[in-house]
Amino acid sequence: MRRSFYFIICIIMGCNSSSQPPETLLKEVVMSNILLDVHLLESKINTLGRKGDTSFQIYDHFEKLILEKHGVDSLVYTQSLAYYMEHPSLIENIYTIIIDSLVLRESTIRNN
Fold first, then answer.
1. CB count, 10 Å around CB of 34?
2. Which of 31, 27, 32 lies closest to 104, judged by CA?
3. Cβ(80)–Cβ(31) under 8 Å?
4. Which one-letter DSSP state was computed for residue 75?
5. Residue % of the chain over a pLDDT of 90
6. How far is CA 44 from CA 27, 59, 87, in A?
7. Quick count: other Cβ atoms within 10 Å of Cβ 59?
8. Crossing angle, helix 28-48 and helix 53-70, to 10 degrees?
9. Distance between CA atoms of 89 and 25, rounded to whole angstroms?
10. What is the Cα Rg of the chain in Å?
11. pLDDT value, residue 1
């Protein structure tokens, strides 16, 4: 859904970018927390069974809330995501953090 949008943004920014990180690059831990929330949001929207514009409107609304929750500007988020997508080892580190967080959440839920 929105992944294709971010993929296109990453490609566009990748064509114009150097290997230098943007001045406002989000730290890996911050980026992992945001992406974790974004992926959970995507999962929730997919379970709603709504298609098209309604899903996009819901996603856009809650994505803004996620970025506000983390105190991050959408441009900083997009630039950071593009940079990390250009560097596979860095994005792998981020997704390792995300997976660890999800495993911890699952473990906590199962133990309660």
1. 22
2. 32
3. yes
4. H
5. 70
6. 26, 10, 28
7. 18
8. 150
9. 16
10. 15
11. 55
